[in-house]
Amino acid sequence: MDRDWSLIVGHQPGWLGLILIVACVGLALLDVFALVRRPPSAAQGRRGRARVLGVLGLRLAAIACLLAVVFELQVRVRSYAGSARRVVVLIDRSASMDIADGPADAKPGRETTRRWDRVRALWRGGEAAREHWRSEGVDIEVRTFGERSDPLTRASADTLEFEPDAPASELAAALVELSDADPDQGPPLAGVVVISDGLVARNAATGEHLRALAAELGVPITTIAAAGPTLRDVSLTRLHVGEFAFVENVTEFAAELVAHGLEGQRASVSLLRDGELVEEQTLRLGDDGDVRTVRFEVAPDRTGQFVYEFRIAPLEGEASTVNNRRSFVIKVLRDKVRVLHVAGRPDWDVRALRTLLKRDPNVELLSYYILRDWEDLSREDEDAPLSLIAFPTDELFREQLGSFDLIVMHNFDAQAHGDYLSNVADYLREGGALVVIGGDLGVATGDFDEPALAELLPINLRERVGLEREPFAPKLSDAGRRHPISA
């Protein structure tokens, strides 16, 4: 019969309680110290000294009882019959356990075994040993660890019929969970067995943390390596690409490759667009861990959004081909965004917007002021010469409208040019973009009375709302906060 003794603190007072306890114990100890230092009288003699020592012992016992009551001290005695103990087996189920590797002299494509298959074979071979442990009273608890630690049932632990798919190997979290476990649940921990490929400690700080956790457990920890010393693999580790490209302009797409165990071999790297081959290159792989960079120069032939992919042709004996491909999305734009800016009259806000658009090198701006109004158009002598050039309405709103990516109607007089609003509606249906900025000639007058355009606009511009000349502060709606422009 084995017994474990432990002292448990059932109640921990707050800061104020601790200060009061320390003060009371300090006063009691001062009183005891004064009693000891007080010299006995000659009449008391030896009997008086014994009485002083007895009082001293009682006071010290009273102080100890006071502390025991305040902290609710308990003595826990755990008894175990025979040699009952618990052994925890931690099995790594991260995705790296799906890699195939082999011994130091393994040949490409031969003598390589998947790490998880190697663990299963080892586990099947230890079935008799586990049954012997159980017959000796050892409780075997099997847990897997990835991002978290999960216990296995007896049936799952005997077969390990699942695949390693966890994105990480958090061994430290699994050890912390063991140290935080309730000691009253089952027999005491006697040992830990860790089965892993070792891809758990990424730096010195992590390694120190693991060693500290292992020391805190205070039990033997046995590690079993599931990885072989020979690994043959090539992977795409990093891409150097942007988010945008411009049609008919050369853009460089680059990718970094890292190989292990494939020194001097040639790898075929392809660039695909929407599954179709764009270009293929061949490069020689370097030593283990050396970075090789492959570059493709591409000139997109049309606008749109495309999925490009780097792909390495599988090599003989590769541990995994999952890391042989990387995809990315590129939005191909025109060389410059064509913007038509039409303003009803010159103004400071018109000037500010024109300056902003002209400053952007990717914007091709075509800006007009409509300086000829109804009075100019309704002159008695229509053939009389005017110093102002007429606004090219037909050319812009009929012939060239589809060539623009964005139309800005800035305080636009829709009454004078309402015949062309249906063309603007057709332009929007075909994917164009429109910005309407109000003013005394535009939104306030309610002249956007074209039904085809009105149903496409988010607000009603057919009502005459007038002008608000008092200052105001605009506020964004919930939808406005998420919009790319106002965000």
Q: What is the CATH architecture descriptor of the largest domain?
A: 3-Layer(aba) Sandwich
Given as residue ranges, the uncertain stretches (5+ residues, pLDDT < 50) are: none
Task: Determine the number of helices (DSSP H or I, runs of at least 4 residues).
Answer: 13
Q: Oligomer, anyone? A: single chain
Instruction: Quickly give the structural class.
Output: alpha/beta
How much helix is in the residues?
Answer: 25-40%
Largest sheet, strands/sense/barrel: 5 strands, mixed
Largest sheet strand order = 7-6-3-8-9
Number of beta-strand segments: 21
Describe this structure in words.
Strands 7-6-3-8-9 form a 5-stranded mixed sheet. It is α/β, with parallel strands linked by helices and 487 residues long. Helix 1 packs antiparallel against helix 2 and helix 6 packs parallel to helix 7. It folds into 4 domains: 2-79, no CATH class; 82-225, von Willebrand factor, type A domain (Rossmann fold), CATH 3.40.50; 233-333, Immunoglobulin-like, CATH 2.60.40.10; 337-482, 3-Layer(aba) Sandwich (Rossmann fold). Helix content is 29%, strand content 29%. It has 13 helices and 21 strands. Strand 18 (337-343), helix 8 (348-359) and strand 19 (363-369) form a beta-alpha-beta unit. The mean pLDDT is 80.
Label this structure with key terms:
single chain; 487 residues; alpha/beta; Rossmann fold; Immunoglobulin-like; five-stranded mixed sheet; 13 helices; 21 strands; 29% helix; flat
Present the secondary structure layout.
Elements: E1 2-9, H1 15-37, H2 45-71, E2 73-80, E3 85-92, E4 100-101, E5 113-114, H3 115-125, H4 127-135, E6 138-145, E7 149-151, H5 154-159, H6 171-179, E8 189-196, H7 204-217, E9 221-225, E10 233-240, E11 244-246, E12 251-260, E13 266-273, E14 276-284, E15 291-298, E16 304-312, E17 325-333, E18 337-343, H8 348-359, E19 363-369, H9 374-377, H10 393-399, E20 406-410, H11 421-429, E21 433-437, H12 451-454, H13 478-482
Parallel strand pairs: 3-6, 3-8, 8-9, 11-17, 18-19, 18-20, 20-21
Antiparallel strand pairs: 1-2, 4-5, 6-7, 10-12, 12-15, 13-14, 13-16, 16-17
Helix pairs in contact: 1-2, 6-7
